[in-house]
Specification:
The protein is mostly beta strands. It has one domain (3-370): Porin (Beta Barrel), CATH 2.40.160. The chain has helices spanning 3-19, 96-101, and strands at 73-90, 92-94, 106-125, 128-145, 157-158, 170-178, 181-192, 195-205, 213-214, 217-218, 231-242, 245-256, 265-266, 270-280, 285-296, 300-301, 307-308, 321-335, 338-370. The strands form four sheets. It has an eleven-stranded antiparallel barrel with strand order 1-3-4-7-8-11-12-14-15-18-19. Strands 5-17 form a two-stranded antiparallel ribbon. Strand 14 and strand 15 form a beta hairpin. The longest helix has 17 residues, at 3-19. 40% of the residues are buried.
């Protein structure tokens, strides 16, 4: 396992052990009682889904996983770090030599994305919870030029160079900016026998920057800050509870409502299927395990300005495909409506379109405050 992830998970577990409130005292909240840490919501009986248990929320990497009682608000902050390492064609990982053999003058070595997400939720009624999500994204990519280019070529492109350096040299791209804003509602349609079902109705607003350039040429498509198009994100979420266990499943889609963004392209439509189990270790700490499946079509359209074609990330057909991930997470209930959580996801199967990038891991950490 990556040493950074090991240290992050160990630090989180140690912090949880130090921060756990003592259980059993008269002022503590138990996940098996009807006492709400926010002081709002109905009295919980044995047949109701208890939204105030430590494991009532899904792993922090799942968005739109829960609704709120009428009048409640929730603020949240999430940080996500995602790492990709090298390339793959379909299910096979590739070496730099493989990529050059396919005719590319440049191969990506690694790519990282750091995303900061701020969310707001409010329930005007018991059956409707409104939400909005804002994010800021930074992306970095390192690439290497073919040390033995055929004919001494350094790459090619449309109206610009391919960003390649001298043979065998490494160079990089970086971008950062506001991402797209997502707004919508969660509509509860079932709430009986400690189980809940709600519809996810989200809309993407094209606020992201999609014109990041270097030396006058567009950066690779994946280096832009977001979609840059209006999109609809429908879905459905199921939640269930037992005395010492909770579980859930969610299916969401991404349907773009425009043919292209201001830079002439749009990302592919896609689906996301996920399911999880969670177990409360104590009244204030739970552990979760999750499966996550992502499928996305390749990019449609084409940059409407100068851009390179020397590296796989510069071509639309090399985006999308499917990924199956496993995740492990911790949820911590601090009292007063505060929650902390962390989750790490690792791919167990990948099938990339074209010559895509090889996903390495994702880690998500977050804070939530209900009031």
């Amino acid at each position: 396992m990556n040493s950074f992830l090991q240290k992050s998970i160990i630090r989180t577990a140690l912090a949880a052990a130090l921060l756990l409130p003592s259980t059993g005292s008269s002022g503590d909240y138990s996940p098996y009682s009807s006492k709400s840490p926010t002081g709002k919501g109905p009295i919980i009986d044995g047949n109701d889904y208890d939204t105030h248990r430590v494991d009532a929320h899904a792993p922090i990497g799942v968005m739109g996983d829960h609704t709120h009682d009428a009048g409640e608000w929730m603020l949240s902050y999430r940080y996500m770090n995602m790492s990709m390492d090298g390339h793959r064609a379909g299910t096979k990982s590739l070496t730099n030599h493989n990529v050059y053999h396919f005719g590319y003058g440049v191969a990506a070595q690694e790519m990282t994305m750091d995303m900061h997400m701020v969310g707001i939720m409010h329930a005007p009624s018991d059956w409707l919870t409104l939400f909005s999500m804002f994010n800021y994204v930074r992306k970095d990519m390192e690439l290497m030029s073919n040390p033995n280019p055929p004919g001494g070529a350094h790459g090619h492109g449309h109206g610009g160079h391919g960003h390649g350096g001298a043979p065998g040299s490494t160079f990089g791209h970086s971008s950062e900016g506001l991402g797209d804003i997502t707004v919508g509602g969660l509509v509860k349609i079932y709430d009986q026998n400690r189980q809940r079902v709600h519809l996810n109705l989200g809309f993407v607003l094209p606020t992201a920057e999609v014109d990041h350039k270097q030396h006058g040429s567009f950066l690779p498509y994946g280096m832009q800050s977001g979609e840059g198009t209006f999109a609809f994100k429908p879905g459905i979420t199921y939640l269930g509870q037992a005395d010492r266990l909770s579980w859930g499943a969610q299916a969401t889609g991404l349907i773009h409502l425009e043919e292209e963004n201001d830079s002439g392209f749009r990302y592919g439509d896609g689906i996301n299927l996920t399911s999880w189990l969670a177990h409360p270790i104590t009244d204030a700490l739970s552990v979760s395990a999750r499966l996550n499946y992502i499928y996305q079509n390749d990019i449609e359209g084409h940059y409407n300005g100068p851009h390179g074609h020397s590296a796989p990330p510069q071509l639309q057909a090399n985006y999308g495909g499917s990924v199956l991930e496993t995740g492990i997470g911790l949820n911590l209930l601090l009292g007063g409506g505060h929650r902390l959580a962390i989750e790490a996801l690792f791919p167990v199967h990948q099938d990339a379109n074209g010559v895509g990038m090889d996903r390495d891991y994702s880690i998500i950490a977050g804070w939530q405050k209900a009031f």
